[in-house]
Amino acid sequence: MEDFNEIEDSENLIESEQDDEDIVKDILDQLKPNKDETSEADLEKLLNRYEKNKNDAIVEDKIEHLNRPTETVIELTRLDLNRFDANLLRGFRQIQYLYLQDNRISSLQIDFFTILNRLKYLDLRNNALVTLPCSICYHECLEILLLQGNCMTRVPKEIGK
Fold it and tell me: Where along the sequence do coiled-coil regions lie (predicted)?
């Protein structure tokens, strides 16, 4: 279990210039000495961490050339993202249009709409969303929200107030 914590503390593997196969090989090599002690839950945490790092690296690569203070439109479509961390866009104070369609995003973080409080247009079509965070109810600028092609089963009860 202590070795798993060392893995958690290791530097972000995505920052290296290794391809996905090398990253997976490195992770497996780190686990080999403690193969008997590594639980399924530990492996799942490691996989989730890898997926988050991979998604964050994809987004960072896509936005690195943009002018953070003045950019109003960000397009992150068809990147096969299964999660999206709105914190990656904190430096973009003027974002009004965000395109996240045709990914695999299954949920939005609780403070998504608080972080991106100037959004007027949000395209989340063709993802895997089942609900929206309550923070949408307090978003004063959002005019257009596209959700077609998701698996929405519920919306925040506050949205009707």
Answer: none
DSSP states along 81-132: -S---GGGGTT-TT--EEE--SS------TTHHHHTTT-SEEE--SS-----
Closest by CA to 92, choosing from 110, 111, 109, 117, is 117
Structural tokens at position 146:
């596209």
CA-to-CA distance for 123 and 27, rounded, in angstroms? 35
Contact 133, 110 (CB under 8 A): yes
pLDDT per residue over 90-137, tens digit each? 999 899 999 999 999 999 999 999 999 999 999 999 999 999 999 999
Cβ contact 105:84 at 8 Å: yes
Residue 41: phi and psi, rounded to 5, are -65, -40
Task: Determine the Cα–Cα distance for residues 5 and 108; give it in Å rounded to an integer.
Answer: 27
- Look up the pTM and report it: 0.70
Closest CA to 81 of 121, 17, 124: 124
